Amino acid sequence: MLRACIFDLDGVIVDTSRYHFLAWKRLMESLGSDLSEEENNCLRGVSRIESLRLLLRMKGMSVTKEQFESLIELKNTWYREYIAGLSEKDILEGALELLRELRNKGLKLGLASSSKNAREVIDRLGIGMYFDAIVDGSMISRAKPDPQIFLLCAGLLCESPSECAVFEDAASGIEAARSAGMVSVGVEAENSLERADMRVRSLLEADIDKLSECVNLR
Ligand code: BG6
Ligand code: MG
């Protein structure tokens, strides 16, 4: 029986991915390189440390440990500048309606984001009150696709993983949900998350009855 829904934040509830993109692009340009939108897609759902490692590998560049640390810091400073103006109007379509519908149906709600900035984003959007549990990047030691983040969230919700569903926009998040033994819903405009149990282009399309059926059929 479906008892809880766990949401990723970036790309599912709010479109912060363009701000991550702008900050990474600015960082790569400061190093005399560049970053295309396509290259940026590989960073979706990936931690900031792993993102910089990937970028440097992609561009055949290397930096010292100290430079690495200061680049990470700089990217985050720029990212935080970009999100300073976030507000309720940046919530993606269908998200608030879905959160309200799920709560009205008596389901528990969790938020599980790899971002260490998740709480700031949640506060700026004013959506903290919808969630019974929030897990952010500072509470985990293993990034998605490891299931740690979703298992921790289910534990805080006091629900069994098999009765939780996950809404995710990143392939690494879908893998994490699968490994956690949770039903996964891929939320992505291109509809390309083939490993997800269900796929929607936005939360507007989410069908709770179908999702419940999917959980019951397992
Ligand atoms: C994820 C984003 O939610 O959080 C990634 O999809 C980002 O793009 C990751 O790198 C870590 O975020 P932050 O804010 O801690 O650097
Ligand atoms: Mg995401």
UniProtKB/TrEMBL annotation:
Q: What is this enzyme's catalytic activity, as reactions?
A: beta-D-glucose 1-phosphate = beta-D-glucose 6-phosphate
Annotated active site residues, numbered on this chain, are: 8, 10
* Keywords, comma-separated and alphabetical: Carbohydrate metabolism, Isomerase, Magnesium, Metal-binding, Phosphoprotein
Q: Where are the transmembrane segments?
A: none
Matching entries from InterPro entries are given as: B-phosphoglucomutase_hydrolase, Beta-PGM, Beta-PGM-like, HAD-like_sf, HAD-SF_hydro_IA, HAD_sf, PGP-like_dom2
Is Metal-binding among the key words of this record? yes
Against Pfam families, the record matches this protein to:
Hydrolase
Q: How is the cofactor bound?
A: Binds 2 magnesium ions per subunit.
- What cofactors does this protein use? Mg(2+)
MF-aspect GO terms: beta-phosphoglucomutase activity; magnesium ion binding
Task: Tell me what this protein is called.
Answer: Beta-phosphoglucomutase
